[in-house]
Amino acid sequence: AIMAVVSLIAVLVGVEFDRYKMASGVYRHGQFYARDKTEIPYHKDGKTATVDLIKGSDGGLTIATNGKSDAKINVAENGLASGDESTMTMAGALPTLLHPKARTAAVIGMGSGLTTHVLLSNPNLERVDTVEIEPAMIDAAKSFRPRVERSFSDPRSRFHIDDAKTFFSASQRHYDIIVSEPSNPWVSGVSGLFTSEFYRRIQSHLNSNGIFIQWVHVYEMDFELVASIVKALGRNFPDFDLYASNDGDLLFVAVREGKTPRLFLENFEKSNLKTAFQRIDIQTFKDLTSRYIGNRTLLEPLFAYAAMPMNSDYFPVLDLHAVRARFLKSDAEEVNMLRAEELPAMEMLGGEVHKPERLLPTRSRYFLWSQRAYIAAAIRGFFSTGRLEPADAFEPSILRHVIIAARPAKSCSDPVMPGLWLDSAHEILKFVTPHSSPAESDAFLRRLSKSDCYRRLDAIQKDIFELYSAAGRRNATQMAALAEKLLKNDKAPRDQDRYFLSAGMLGYLANNQVLNAQQLWRTYGARTLGGQTPDIMLRFLWSHSIYRDRNQNRTNS
Asked: Which of 52, 302, 376, 537 has an alpha carbon within 20 to 30 A of 404's alpha carbon?
């Protein structure tokens, strides 16, 4: 037996595991890193995880734990920013802009060190504590320098090798800012950093005007699991706002007391963040505020009626179900796109109001909302000037609808043309309406209605167009009346029922006619869905109708 053990030790000592296979995370993507396209300059079996640095041919440097990417930065000179950079930059920038006089901050999870680096751009901060359980992560992150230089060279930066729960339990420190960016919750042990109990502990370590930032991914996740996190946040913080840093990542901004602060242009212009923002395609204040999805008042009803209960140490639903969501390749990216839905529900129910924008929105590769806003501005420009500028906004599928909708007068004599024209008008209004102010929409719709095709629409088609028009102008009363009229009309196209129902419910809710919205759902919901699951807009409107009704009844009683 002793000889067998000795032989085994000898074999293990002589074995060198292939770091490319160890770093590849085959369990997640089903493939190995190619040696001719990838370098692995760092590989270490740490105390809690195996940590790797993977450098790709595009200049991207990724830090990974146990084969799972935790952060990627493009370190090549003039290299394009990665999607992760937008999240890490905004996680450090948002609290700086919302609380510019903050003195102390803590970051949960080292990652690349970029969030800490961005936080330290605030000269008012006196200390930033970065809490990381794995020492090898901090060692490996040095390779991201100079992109994360302040994390390592700024005397205000302190590293703490500790579990986050233990650190805050043992520490008596209080902070103005706490940012939580742990690994994905399907990684063993991480979901405990998304529980109600952990948030209660974090809340107690915030100063009276303190801000808490929570990163939540929506890739390899589902809506119910996101809801379980939101319920836990809502249990422990009086208010929160939600931002999208890219199509796959959310940032919740919660406060210890009162209401979440608003972003102000003055703070944006005075900050030292211009270069960092430009790198992630945020050129203007409007580009930044476009990442805003909504506040607690708007979003809580949507998440409150999700079937999944609040994530808790005692009922760890996130820990139990996150692995399944990853395996099934689920996603909840619809949450990020709520403001880009074709109906301006977030705005009409109390969210940010669109204002006319002179500057063309910056088009981000990692944020679909910005791409759609860019297209919307280009479409409005074409109908105003007749020029297809900028050309890259007019992809073939969009250009076809623009050309049809812009047909000159007296060109719709073919009987099928009015219907085609209306369909194309609807397709381009899906871009224009959610990304335009009421005044911009009104001007655009007036131009559309000058078409000969508009004059040749039949009565039902004109009602449909007027419904589109009412939505663009945010006229809730007309939306409700026209939508209900079309739902009742047996000759109206049933393939548009989802739009009619959504527009009608939104119109009623915007006028606080909650019972009318519910009645519309009860009457036409089953017919509209046809056994299918409702999309996020219908879920959003339905949940608001129930939530408001119950709150009104509670108030009246």
From this structure: 537
